[in-house]
Design brief:
By secondary structure, this protein is of the alpha/beta class. It is built from ten helices and eight strands. The longest helix is centred in the last third of the chain and has 15 residues. The chain is globular and about 50 Å long.
Length: 202
């Protein structure tokens, strides 16, 4: 598992990376202090599995970071980490493309469990945000995978090309598109993009 941690507190970043690599053999962690530095590292390391972005990054927002990484590296799973552990922030992170929301109070073992779920294509939200899993897709907003599909639709990709880029079946893409249309109350793909921009998803 290859990770990128974007956090503007060097001591936390080094300590977090050290704890993860010692808790699981073979795990690699790169660290960056800013979004720009993280994006530059990601461009050089195409085999990264997950980027973990701190919610508070000095002048930048981790939510913006999720969107920027999603735009530049749509196949990389994104995770928001934060000391503010609440369902509202978790919902915003999910809407911005996060596959997981992890509170900094989580034990390393729980963090590793979450990362394994994310690497397997799933979603994970810490206990403080567990209420999200009880809500319907319309209330919780699009999933991270649906947001990837949405991003590719915005780039003019058709279902077959989206399936090829994401490595999933075309019928699965159709299901994601249908779910997006329903979640955003759109009538067609063009209307979907309008509604997505209005909702701040693009």
């Amino acid at each position: 598992m290859k990770l990128l941690l974007v956090d503007d507190h060097p001591l936390f970043g080094v300590g977090f990376a050290h704890a993860l690599t010692h808790a699981q053999a073979g795990l690699e962690v790169q660290t960056a202090l800013t979004l720009d530095e993280g994006l530059a590292l990601a461009a050089l390391s195409r085999d990264l599995d997950v980027v973990l972005i701190d919610y508070r990054l000095g002048g930048d927002s981790g939510l913006d970071g999720l969107r920027r990484f999603g735009a530049s590296h749509p196949l990389m799973a994104r995770v928001l980490i934060s000391g503010d552990e609440d369902t509202a922030l978790a919902a915003r992170a999910r809407a911005a493309g996060a596959a997981a929301f992890l509170g900094k109070s989580l034990a390393i073992g729980q963090v590793l469990q979450a990362l394994q779920v994310v690497c397997a294509g799933g979603e994970y939200f810490s206990d403080a945000a567990s209420a999200l899993s009880q809500r319907g897709a319309r209330d919780a907003g699009p999933t991270a995978r649906q947001l990837e599909v949405l991003s590719l639709i915005a780039r003019g990709r058709q279902n077959k090309h989206i399936a090829d880029e994401l490595g999933i079946a075309e019928r699965t893409v159709k299901l994601h598109v249908t779910a997006l249309l329903d979640a955003l109350g759109a009538n067609n793909r063009t209307h979907l993009l309008v509604r997505a921009r209005e909702a701040g998803l693009l």
